[in-house]
Amino acid sequence: MSRLTRVATPLFGAGLAILTAGPTAAHAHGIAGDRLFPATLSIDDPAVGDELSAPTFTYQPQSGSNGSPETTRYGYGFEWDKTITKNLGVAINDGYSVIRQQGANSLYGWNDLVTTLKYQFFESDTHEILASVGVQREWGGTGALRLGVDATGWTQPTLYAGKGMGDLPASVGLLRPFALTGELGYQFADVPTAHAPDGGVSHSPNFWNIGFSVQYDMHYLQAQVKDYGLPEFVNHLIPLVEFAYSTPATNGYGATTTGTIAPGVLYEGGAYQIGVEALIPATKASGTRTGVIAQLHFYLDDLLPTTLGKPVF
User: What does UniProt give as the signal peptide span (predicted)?
Assistant: First the structure.
């Protein structure tokens, strides 16, 4: 259940960025039938669980523009997800950033703290579907303002969903390992317009944050479709592409649509996951240079099943 922490640069802002039905019987790891919905790196997955992402490393270079220097941002993040009940969970997300500026001093400090309350309300094992609803909250001013973090904060109701293709007919068996996940959130600012003591005015528009992923599970191919005798290492891989976009929902005051396209691969090790993705700008406003995100992720329900790995109630 991982996501890019939202920070001030447009490309990272795209990282944060659908179904309705009855109650669910939740499993660990985000499982519906034979389908594992892994912890994606750029957007959130549709499940609740007991998990830990630490560390999440991001590297993002930005070309200088409009008189601003060329920068390189390094991020070191973490996220802890905890189940309260089997269907209700909370998450705490933060990170430390270092911004190196060409011809200027480096900037460094903590990002704003982000928390999430999430409820998984639907599961279909037959059709490999999970769906959840949640509320994300950025606590403005908890990070270092010199990094450009929000001083006031925002709140974002979000809908999450995942659909595996395992219910396709056997005649198209090679398509059955595919899965799609997505999230749709509306982010609204605490203080849309702020007045500074010197008479200046700053605007914080509301945003639609939209993300989705396309995944291909090699273990699903081996176990549920056909064993092609591939190396065991390959059978633990999930190649994927994530897309994350952020677009103003109100007057943007100069802000435009930003986004990332993040192709990469996940390695599923049972109680842990290792992932790496490229961060490719998806719009002109997102920049011109490609970054990287890499993460070590732990499934606490496997590692600590009787303590931190089980619901509180």
Answer: 1-28
Nearest of 245, 123, 119 to residue 182 by alpha carbon: 245
* CB contact at 8 A, 53 and 77: yes
The 3-state DSSP class for residue 11 equals helix
Q: At 45, list the tokens.
A: 């997955």
Token pair 């579907």 is at which residue?
Answer: 129
Distance CA 234, CA 218 (A): 7
The CB density around residue 124, as the number of other CB atoms within 10 Å, is 17
The residue type at 99: I
SS3 of residue 138 by DSSP: strand
Q: What percent of the chain has pLDDT over 90?
A: 80
Which domain covers residue 246, as residue numbers? Answer: 10-303
pLDDT digits (tens, 9 = 90+) for 44-84: 999 999 999 999 999 999 987 776 789 999 999 999 999 99
Tally of structural domains, the chain: 1
Residue 2, in any domain of the structure: no
Look up residue 305 and give its amino acid.
Answer: P
User: Is 289 contained in some domain?
Assistant: yes
